[in-house]
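User: Hey, my collaborator sent me this sequence without any context and asked if I could get a structure. I don't really work with proteins. Can you help?
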Amino acid sequence: MSDSSIGVWLNAARPKTLPAAISPVILGIALAWDAGALHFPAALCALMGAILIQIAANYANDYYDYLKGADAGERLGPVRATQAGLVKPAQMKRAMVTVLGLASLSGLYLVYRGGWPILVVGLLSMLFAVLYTAGPYPLGYIGAADLFVLIFFGPVAVAGTYYVQALHLPWTPVWIGLGPGLLSVAILTVNNLRDVNQDRLSGKKTLAVRFGPWYARLQYSLCIIIAVIILPVAAAVHSGHILVCVAILAAAPVGYCVRVVITETNGVTLNDCLARTGKVLLLYSLLFSLGWVLS
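Assistant: No problem. I've predicted the 3D structure and written it out in structure-token form, which is a compact way to encode the shape of the chain:
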């Protein structure tokens, strides 16, 4: 495999989206650590599984959007490998299946440790990774993707990571998981705002298409605001963890993104905002985790 082909596959994996997979797992590990339940093999498998499922979802998105013609015409977002002819459709499909298989291997240990609840979560995660763009009613085409992202990149990921380590589940990881879930929705919202005109032409009915750009701008702003509000609420509910408020520092660079989302329509500028929001999500989760463990 040449360096150029490796680069194609790495770009198709969309590394800028990986903070959405990594961040809630980091938070789940920190919560388990603080509870004296850190289990390194389970934490590592949860992290690897989350990353692999995200990559598989990106490959599936590349492949099925090509089949549906959603990537035809001038793209504002990153180059799609299949549509650009850099990868054959059959190759992309095989890559998707291979990565899902690797994710399943990571999940086997988690199922052995956590039992049927983890089996259900793992199967649903892999299923929705494909159904995001596949099938007669793909989540990304009917406006249901936002809810899926909120749940699976938020409470499910944080609580699932906690559970496979502690083998019990309090409510704290569930509601705290809303923070990274909302920021992941914010990433998706910028993506849909950027592509709203192209999606409308291709019949992709995201919420930005259904309700208009104004709705996407409002949704993005609310996701950021509520994610930040969760920090002082967590500190108030768990008075011994006041240092989680340090994660408010992650919101400092997002003020620029909110202004861009509200005022800009330029695809390049929105791409930059998307990448910045991904970094904010990762920083938010890291600072939240550090503040929780050190309090």
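In plain terms: The chain has a mean pLDDT of 91. You can pass these tokens on to your collaborator as they are.
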